[in-house]
């Protein structure tokens, strides 16, 4: 029986850690040499306190681990919902927050478009006129520069300080929006 106890004490990590502390080792030796109720009770109390500390540390460690995982998930979710200047404001439009910001317009053509809505003045068909009125300022500007001024997407991109891909996408969406608005109506 004592060999079994010695073997358990030698192989059990918790007991080894408990006995590494000099005070606990002294309590163990006292209880082993003089197995009185007082010494055994002190040893049991010391072991219970030691075991509680181990369990408490494990509990705190696990909570910190899961809290950090949840914190990272929330942070990633918040980062995904951050507003970026180049993201479209609506799914079906190419207008970005950057486009909506007030910027200096040194280009006289853009100033003229902004002041007179020139593209709308060139339209004679009432249905097309109302469809164009539904377009954003950005889309109207791109259509005006593309079809009234015969500029390429690259030239429009330079004038509007945008990428060629953004101009092409905005023009395509504007035309698609016009088609959807005019669908079913016959133009004269």
Structure explained in plain terms:
With 188 residues, the chain is mainly alpha-helical. It has two domains: 2-80; 97-182, Orthogonal Bundle (Arc Repressor Mutant, subunit A), CATH 1.10.10. 73% of the residues lie in helices and 0% in strands. The protein contains eleven helices and no strands. The longest helix has 44 residues, at 37-80. The chain is rod-shaped. Mean pLDDT is 77; it is low at 102-106.
**Which structural class do the helices and strands define?**
mainly alpha
CATH topology of the largest domain: Arc Repressor Mutant, subunit A
Task: Give the overall shape.
Answer: rod-shaped
Percent helix range: over 70%
**Named CATH architecture of the largest domain:** Orthogonal Bundle
The domain tally reads 2
Number of strands: 0
For this structure, what is the CATH class of the largest domain? Answer: Mainly Alpha
Strand content: under 5%
Order of helices and strands: HHHHHHHHHHH
